[in-house]
Amino acid sequence: MGMWEEASDPVMGKKDKNEERKERILNLTLEIIYLLTGEGYVIPKKKSPTVGLGALHAPGSVIQKENDKKILELISNIIQLLTGEVAIRCEDVSIYFSLEEWEYIKGNKALYREGIKEEEEPQQLRPLGE
């Protein structure tokens, strides 16, 4: 187990997958904070008496999906800061640009769009050597 990982609570029983995922993300975040600052932090767990069942987000809810998307964006920003690269993913292909290359691409976005529109015309495949 990592520095902040805990075994599942015997009183509460086995945790569901979503709860385990949340705890793992929080533990990894605490480890990152420790590595950045050299200081350990503890997040106290407490149940709010004012939170009703309606305030909880179901695993497939729109709010949960938006939160997951925002978390991925923040993680992507952290990766960009650490590596100095911007990752672009399309289906099964990933391309990594340096931050300098990415700024150039963003600055010349209109030129790339024009080039893509020109290439949308179907092209004939020709055997090599012709």
Describe this structure in words.
- By secondary structure, this protein is mainly α.
- Helices cover 48% and strands 9% of the residues.
- The protein has two domains: 1-45 and 59-65, no CATH class; 72-119, no CATH class.
- It has helices at 17-37, 62-83, 99-107, 109-119, and strands at 85-90, 93-98.
- A two-stranded antiparallel ribbon has the order 1-2.
- The N and C termini lie far apart (61 Å).
The profile of the biggest β sheet is:
2 strands, antiparallel
Ends: how far apart? 61 Å
Rounded to an integer in angstroms, the radius of gyration calculated over CA atoms is: 23 Å
Proportion in helices: 40-55%
Per DSSP E runs of 2 or more residues, the count of β-strands stands at 2
Number of domains: 2
Secondary structure class reads mainly alpha
How do the SSEs run, as a string of H and E? HHEEHH
Global mean pLDDT: 73
Widest β-sheet, arrangement of strands: 1-2
Helical run tally: 4
Strand content: 5-15%
Form type: elongated
Flag low-confidence runs: 1-9, 51-55
Quick rundown:
This protein is mainly α. It has helices at 17-37, 62-83, 99-107, 109-119; strands at 85-90, 93-98.
List keywords for this structure.
2 strands, 2 domains, disordered N terminus, elongated, 4 helices, 130 residues, two-stranded antiparallel ribbon, mainly alpha
Chart the SSEs and their pairings.
Elements: H1 17-37, H2 62-83, E1 85-90, E2 93-98, H3 99-107, H4 109-119
Antiparallel strand pairs: 1-2
